[in-house]
Amino acid sequence: MQKGVWALVLWMLVGYGQAACPAWPQAKAEQEMERLGQRITEWNNAYWQQGSSTVSDEVYDQLAARLAYWQRCFTGETPAHSALPPLRGDTRHPVAHTGVRKLANQADVARWMRGQSGLWVQPKVDGVAITLVYRQGRLTQAISRVTA
What we know:
Structural class: mainly alpha
Oligomer: single chain
Signal peptide: 1-19
Number of domains: 2
Strand order of the largest sheet: 1-2
Radius of gyration: 21 Å
Protein name: DNA ligase
EC number: 6.5.1.2
Enzyme class: ligase
Keywords: Ligase, Signal
């Protein structure tokens, strides 16, 4: 009997945690998605062009996920929303400064790692992506995402 009660409570909690799509008319949905999309674009511009983080990573990630969820609700798809800056420089990177999309949990990371070979893992320093080029033991070039 207790197992049944706990199963019911767990089912209710899981179901409650999965929010339904907002019950908005299409016009309001478009307005809200546009407003949130503009805010995210402003944050991206501040980050990439002025070098200032005007919102925490946690808030950014939550609201970017909310926008993607609303887009799935009202359009049936999630348009690619790139947070990468426009290329402005002419310096070529010897190694691509790529990132890995954020994974939700340890199981997702383990699943992703199974499909990879030759992984190079390093700590993430927020806002820093730089390649240091050494020639004959001397630093000759420092290349960031912004300078390329």
